[in-house]
TrEMBL record, chains A, B:
Residues 16-110 form the HTH arsR-type domain. SMART domains: HTH_ARSR. One of its GO terms (molecular function) is DNA binding. It comes from Halosaccharopolyspora lacisalsi. Keywords: DNA-binding, Transcription, Transcription regulation. SUPFAM superfamilies: Winged helix' DNA-binding domain. This is DNA-binding transcriptional ArsR family regulator. Transmembrane segments: none annotated.
DNA sequence: GGCCTTGTACGATTAATATCGTACTAACCG
DNA sequence: CGGTTAGTACGATATTAATCGTACAAGGCC
């Protein structure tokens, strides 16, 4: 069974932007970068949280960290720590509520 | 009656990217810039071609030219010349075909 | 022709972003 | 404790992108 966000609330959730404060151009900018789009697509395929190392990105660790941070600050993903790993998940529901159809359209594309 | 694209085909259409060759991240990047998003929104509201001067942009002429070029090269707008004016229009249909729901979602946002 | 309008082209500058390496922290395992 | 794992933080660099000013081109008008 997949752990839900609520169950994790006692754990180390990292601060992520309230989606109400995020503008759409910020989200588009965040998604308009190949590495970050790859991350988002992988999360969508997985349908469950993934730890940062599991993406098989071809960039350095520090560059990965940077991209995850951009995604988190633009409200696209949430992250929490578990042991030495940091897990990321798509904020699918919140995104859909704030920008209806956007994530679906981006994931559908091509 | 609104002039269609076909009727203008004998005029000076500028080369714009074939949408088949445009990747979604390029489109997202193009839309993720406030001035360009403003242009796209104005075109959507107008529902007809607008000349570049009609947008009331607060940037210089050369900067405008740059942004229109980015939008054109990413397949989002088409442009044609008429007299001394250059008109832009959204490639609504082609965009919808290539990236279903994307433009609508972006225009709906907020 | 001269002049205004509309917009481009080019080059320079500045600002933003992507990238990396190194040093570091925290959790776990022996 | 020391070593390993997973990832961050910081500082540097390199690349990309936004911005502008000036010079230019083409159409329309007198």
């Amino acid at each position: 069974m997949v752990t839900t966000r609520h169950q994790r609330s006692t754990q180390k959730m990292l601060p992520c932007s309230a989606l109400g404060e995020v503008r759409v151009d910020q989200v588009l900018r965040a998604l308009g970068e190949p590495v970050r789009l790859e991350i988002v697509r992988a999360l969508a395929r997985a349908e469950q949280p993934m730890n940062c190392g599991a993406f098989g990105l071809t960039v350095s660790k520090s560059t990965s960290t940077h991209h995850f941070k951009v995604l988190r600050e633009s409200g696209i993903i949430a992250q929490y720590d578990e042991g030495t790993a940091r897990y990321s998940e798509l904020r699918t529901t919140e995104l859909e509520q704030r920008f209806p159809g956007l994530l679906t359209a981006v994931l559908t594309a091509e």
